[in-house]
């Protein structure tokens, strides 16, 4: 039993985090927004040079063959900077799904090097960054189809978050596009990585609040010296502190694919969503009227958290998963870890 | 990251489980906060635990422990709560003073006090708060006046849990004339020493859960001082770290309560709205989240890390989850929730009302949650002091 990241995991996360903090500042986000471009080409090529899209791809496809516990910290960092590019979904959901197919038609290797493949999972109503995709994984009932970009027509669905570029997709399934029937753990991976990004988003909202509250003075003192403000921020930090380990445990347990690991993912998504929501609203409150403007940076992070909270399964759906788990599988002090429920009761 | 017990850890769990099944009293013991008899029944249980060498498993063997690591301590606690074993009457000793003494005590103090503490021979109370020094603990006015090889203790302590029947107390005193955080010492004194007067204070349900302690020229040897003279504040803050950190409230306590809440929900679910199921799920999630956080903390400590101000987040989280969990149970019980165990129509074997009354002061003791939020804001996040 050891609930901590390895030194290698900490190192790769730190390298990615530094790159993201450097290349994706709020002013970079504003520039991208003004340019109207879907993504920052320079940043995306840096991300690809670091091999991040292929972090979970098999070595045979040019990947690093690492797991979710290696990606989860990077997903937090991507949330922290409000990364507009769809790295996390590509690296953590689409590529593992491509790798699970009997025949990926060569797309696994292309995706691992950063050629974007979009994913239209049945859980979600919309497909992210579909216009940037060379191919799309799309659901038709239980079937998975791998469809070239030329064979679809897209309708943009404007999101509150301009960087969440959502589309509805019109296409015709055929035996030529059918590649599988097992979505495997794609929905769980999507939910877990959304949760990890929300942890980062929530922490960013808190850090912004702290920094604003140190500078902004009222009644002759920084507003951060008042307990009423401190306690708002502290409460949001508590919510994050008790969501983060759930997200990390979910990353480690997800491959077990049992009721307990699915419920952990659901718990992670619910808790991270609540924490990010609380932190974002706290940031608005601490920034006062500035907090609801387009000029302040709060909105970048609030909007992303807002979108992710209901993507990859709603709070209601995830709550149902948790209720199902607590009423059907063993609970109590000896049932903390999913591995203990996948083996027979020691009694 | 490996979220799986080793075969040795699993075997240890089974060893604890078997011992608990053979030894935990079948029914609840009488309250340790109401009568001497109830208190002594709990002391007997502590002695029995000690005979099995379960008194404090993390302590070195020569001090009555088993020298186990924190992961095994968590496993022990999980089995302890799972078995429904009695609440530890000596929790202020074994969970707060014990670790502090391990860090600051002399070898002589450790061998003098810790084996007796592990055995329940000495049950300890904490004597820090005073009528004028609660959240502002640096405002204590009780004094320790050096007189040769002795301290003469004078003053008044309050809200001292278990002090009504306990044997010893660890108190925070100051040199006469010293101010605030300076000149304080942590001094151990017997509660039956000449000059000590105890006045029990009844909690709202009538239990004598705490006491006032009056000290009138109480003489103790200077060897009863824990840590350096004048360093009492520093020593106390280490204790507070253990208190808020991972010793005082085991996650297992809340996981066991959540398990019972789920059983209560299952029993009544046909008549309950979906909102109750959501609250039950929330309590289970919170108890598990606390357990995971503590496992992460234990893993960090095992790798040589320390507990910092994040301990304050723990204290807020468990105290709030405890209240919410009990409120949900009471809402499920409906108009029977207010019945005490004495009522002929009482049909609540799990005593949710007692649990609720126990949970109520959680946000107050061990440093109020308002103080904890200040600590998080100032020391974790770097917000400016007032």
Keywords, please?
heterodimer; A: 347 residues; alpha+beta; Butyryl-Coa Dehydrogenase, subunit A, domain 1; Butyryl-CoA Dehydrogenase, subunit A, domain 3; 2 domains; 4-stranded mixed β-sheet; 3-stranded antiparallel β-sheet; 9 strands; B: 386 residues; Butyryl-CoA Dehydrogenase, subunit A, domain 2; 3 domains; 4-stranded antiparallel β-sheet; globular
Strand order in the sheet with the most strands of chain B: 1-4-5-8
Q: What's the number of extended β-strand segments of chain B? A: 8
Number of domains of chain A: 2
Please state the CA-atom Rg of chain B, rounded to the nearest Å. Answer: 21 Å
In CATH, the architecture of the largest domain in chain A is Orthogonal Bundle
User: Could you spell the SSE succession of chain B in H and E letters?
Assistant: HHHHHEEEEEEEEHHHHHH
Distance linking N and C termini of chain B: 41 Å
Following the backbone from N to C, one meets helices and strands of chain A in this order, namely HHHHHHEEEEEEEHEEHHHHHH
Q: Outline the low-pLDDT stretches of chain A.
A: none
What fraction of residues of chain A sit in β-strands?
5-15%
- Could you give the distance between the termini of chain A? 20 Å
Q: Any idea of the CATH class of the largest domain in chain B?
A: Mainly Alpha
Cofactor (chain A): FAD
InterPro entries (chain A): AcylCo_DH-like_C (IPR036250), AcylCo_DH/oxidase_C (IPR009075), AcylCoA_DH/ox_N (IPR013786), AcylCoA_DH/ox_N_sf (IPR037069), AcylCoA_DH/oxidase_NM_dom_sf (IPR009100)
Domain Acyl-CoA dehydrogenase/oxidase C-terminal (chain A): 190-326
Keywords (chain A): FAD, Flavoprotein, Oxidoreductase
């Amino acid at each position: 039993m050891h609930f901590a990241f390895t030194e290698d995991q900490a190192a790769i996360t730190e390298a990615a985090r530094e790159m993201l903090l450097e290349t994706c500042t709020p002013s970079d986000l504003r520039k991208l927004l003004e340019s109207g471009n879907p993504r920052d080409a320079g940043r995306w090529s840096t991300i690809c040079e670091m091999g991040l899209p292929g972090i979970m791809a098999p070595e045979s496809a040019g990947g690093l063959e690492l797991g979710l516990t290696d990606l989860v910290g990077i997903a937090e960092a991507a949330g922290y900077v409000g990364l507009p590019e769809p790295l996390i979904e590509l690296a953590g959901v689409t590529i593992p799904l491509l790798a699970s197919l009997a025949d990926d038609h060569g797309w696994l290797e292309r995706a691992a090097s950063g050629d974007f493949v979009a994913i239209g999972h049945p859980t979600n109503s919309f497909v992210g960054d579909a216009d940037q995709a060379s191919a799309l994984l799309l659901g038709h009932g239980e079937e998975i189809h791998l469809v070239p970009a030329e064979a679809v027509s897209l309708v943009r669905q404007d999101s509150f978050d301009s960087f969440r570029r959502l589309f509805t997709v019109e296409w015709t399934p055929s035996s030529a596009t059918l590649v599988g029937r097992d979505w495997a753990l794609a929905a769980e991976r999507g939910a877990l990585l959304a949760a990890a990004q929300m942890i980062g988003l929530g922490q960013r909202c808190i850090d912004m609040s702290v920094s604003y509250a140190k500078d902004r003075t009222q009644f002759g003192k920084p507003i951060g010296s008042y307990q009423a403000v401190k306690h708002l921020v502290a409460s949001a930090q508590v919510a994050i502190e008790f969501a983060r380990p759930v997200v990390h445990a979910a990353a480690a347990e997800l491959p077990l694919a049992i009721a307990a690991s699915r419920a952990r993912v659901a718990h992670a998504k619910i808790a991270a969503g609540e924490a990010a929501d609380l932190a974002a609203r706290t940031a608005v409150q601490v920034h006062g009227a500035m907090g609801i403007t387009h000029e302040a940076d709060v909105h970048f992070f609030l909007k992303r958290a807002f979108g992710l909270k209901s993507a990859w399964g709603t709070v209601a759906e995830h709550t149902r998963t948790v209720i199902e788990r607590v009423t059907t599988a063993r609970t109590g002090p000896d049932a903390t870890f999913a591995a203990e429920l996948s083996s027979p009761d020691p009694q | 990251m490996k979220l799986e017990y080793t075969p040795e850890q699993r075997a240890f769990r089974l060893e604890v489980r078997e011992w608990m099944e053979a030894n935990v009293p079948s029914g609840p013991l009488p309250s340790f906060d109401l009568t001497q008899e109830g208190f002594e029944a709990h002391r007997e249980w502590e002695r029995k635990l000690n005979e099995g060498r379960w008194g404090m498993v993390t302590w070195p063997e020569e001090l009555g422990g088993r020298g186990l690591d924190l992961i095994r301590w968590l496993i022990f606690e999980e089995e302890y709560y799972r078995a429904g074993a009695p609440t530890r009457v000596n929790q202020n000793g074994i969970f707060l003073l014990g670790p502090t003494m391990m860090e600051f005590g002399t070898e002589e103090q450790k061998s003098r006090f810790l084996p007796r503490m592990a055995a329940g021979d000495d049950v300890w109370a904490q004597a820090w708060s005073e009528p004028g020094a609660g959240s502002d603990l640096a405002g204590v006015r009780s004094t320790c006046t050096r007189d040769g090889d002795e301290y003469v203790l004078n003053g008044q302590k309050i809200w001292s849990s278990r002090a009504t029947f306990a044997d010893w107390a660890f108190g925070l005193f100051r040199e006469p004339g010293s101010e605030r955080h300076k000149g304080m010492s942590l001094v151990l004194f017997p509660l039956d020493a000449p000059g000590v007067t105890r006045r029990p204070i009844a909690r709202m349900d009538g239990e004598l859960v705490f006491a006032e302690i009056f000290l009138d020229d109480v003489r103790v040897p200077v060897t009863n001082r824990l840590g350096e003279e004048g360093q009492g504040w520093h020593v106390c803050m280490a204790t507070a770290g253990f208190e808020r950190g991972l010793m005082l409230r085991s996650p297992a306590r809340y996981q066991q309560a959540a398990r019972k809440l789920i059983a209560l929900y299952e029993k009544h679910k046909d008549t309950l709205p979906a909102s109750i199921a959501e609250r039950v799920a929330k309590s289970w999630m919170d108890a598990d989240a606390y357990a995971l956080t503590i496992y992460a903390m234990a893993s960090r400590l095992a790798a040589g890390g320390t507990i910092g101000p994040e301990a304050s987040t723990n204290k807020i989280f468990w105290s709030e989850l405890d209240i919410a969990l009990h409120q949900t149970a009471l809402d499920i019980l409906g108009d029977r929730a207010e019945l005490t165990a004495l009522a002929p129509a009482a049909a609540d074997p799990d005593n949710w009302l007692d649990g609720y009354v126990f949970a109520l002061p959680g946000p107050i003791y061990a440093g109020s949650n308002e103080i904890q939020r200040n600590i998080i804001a100032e020391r974790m996040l770097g917000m400016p002091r007032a």
